[in-house]
Amino acid sequence: TRTPVNVTVTGAAGQIGYALLFRIASGHLLGADVPVNLRLLEIPQGLKAAEGTAMELDDCAFPLLRDITITDQPSVAFDGANVALLVGARPRTAGMERGDLLSANGGIFGPQGKAINDHAADDIKVLVVGNPANTNALIAQRNAPDVPAERFTAMTRLDHNRAVAQLAKKLGVTVNDIQRLTIWGNHSATQYPDIFQALVNGKNAAEAVNDEAWLADTFIPTVAKRGAAIIEARGASSAASAANAAIDHVYTWVNGTAEGDWTSMGIVSDGSYGVEPGIISSFPVTTKDGEFEIVQGLEISDFSRARIDASVAELVEERDAVQALGLI
Ligand code: NAI
Predict the structure, then answer these.
(1) CA–CA separation, 49 and 72 (whole Å)
(2) Where is NAD(+) bound in this sequence (predicted)?
(3) Sign of the dihedral defined by the CA atoms of residues 73, 115, 244, 66, in that order
(4) 3-class DSSP state for residue 39?
(5) DSSP strand pairing (263-268 vs 280-288)
């Protein structure tokens, strides 16, 4: 029998946590033959609700679930962690300035990064979901100097999945017919969903769409503003789809992208495609054996260039702001 993998989830009592934990425990995060221990990190006010969720996890009698630890101590939650899903974050409240938002999150992701540095397993893989995800991931990464920088990633898979679904709908095909779509930049309204490299049943998707106005005025804003549309419709932010994307992100990272396809992940830039080195930006990546590589050599049109640059400029601003606040 295999040794269980330690999976830490922060914000475990939140709505994404509730949608996420049952799928981790049922084998969707790592594979149907991989046992897991769950480590749930919450703030003191969230502990009781996390205990309730743990009771329900027990009640599922999941064959792969070993033990569950519930704590408000990062050093305990990240002890021996192999995979960490950083979901809990400080949301923007009415009247909150951006600097306040970044400092509040720095107060969460700085100490969590340090706890990962000091306590996690050597093979730790981190996915940051809590917003502002890219910059929170950067804060955590910079506070974990002993962990290879590429182990810190930010989630743009929900944007990726949203873009695939919108494109499939437009072309009257299924999501299975679409490959090589890319989300570039920040998980924010400036993100750029790129279909110029994408394939639909093996043919170029942009040519199949053949409608630049739809791309600029419908597709890109629909994907970029989907989070707001969900809040408007549901009265609460995306939870099950966000949890699903977190599952997809880690599953793909660990188990690999399909031959000929790629995915989108927020990762530390090495300067590829002119993206400022060191920031955490979304790129097209292939994954294999738990490692990823940025897809190289893609031709970037002027249409794409302007949009990638705008989103990267926002990330550079966020980095400069957290640097000025002394958070990195
Ligand atoms: P929620 O408010 O329902 O849950 C957040 C939970 O985090 C709460 O239980 C809270 O007690 C906990 N928490 C706060 N600070 C913590 C800390 N320092 N340590 C541990 N736990 C802490 O929020 P929800 O809906 O679950 O969303 C979580 C985050 O995910 C938000 O920041 C949201 O903006 C973000 N998000 C990101 C998406 C992406 O595509 N990257 C998509 C959807 C949401």
Answers:
(1) 12
(2) 11-17, 105, 112, 129-131
(3) negative
(4) strand
(5) antiparallel
- Ligand 1 lined by 71 (C-beta under 6 Å): no
How many CA atoms does the CB half-sphere of 177 hold within 13 Å? Answer: 16
**Nearest Cα residue to 62 out of 42, 87, 32, 92:** 32
Q: Which residue's CA is minimally distant from atom 39 of ligand 1?
A: 129
Confirm or reject: Cβ of 231 under 6 Å from ligand 1.
no
pTM above 0.80, yes or no: yes
Query: What is the band of 91 on the pLDDT scale with cuts at 50, 70, 90?
Result: confident
Beta bridge partners of 183: 193
Q: Which ligand 1 atom lies nearest to the CA of residue 238? A: 43
Q: What is the pLDDT of residues 203-248, one digit of tens each?
A: 999 999 999 999 999 999 999 999 999 999 999 999 999 999 999 9
Instruction: Quote ipTM for the complex.
Output: 0.98
Three-class secondary structure of residue 303 per DSSP: helix
Q: Identify the active-site residue in 28, 119, 160, 187.
A: 187
| 249 is a catalytic site residue | no
Nearest CA to ligand 1 atom 9: 14
**Partner residues linked to 68 by β-bridges:** 38
42 pocket-lining for ligand 1 (C-beta < 6 Å): yes
Q: What is the pLDDT of residues 141-162, one digit of tens each?
A: 999 999 999 999 999 999 999 9
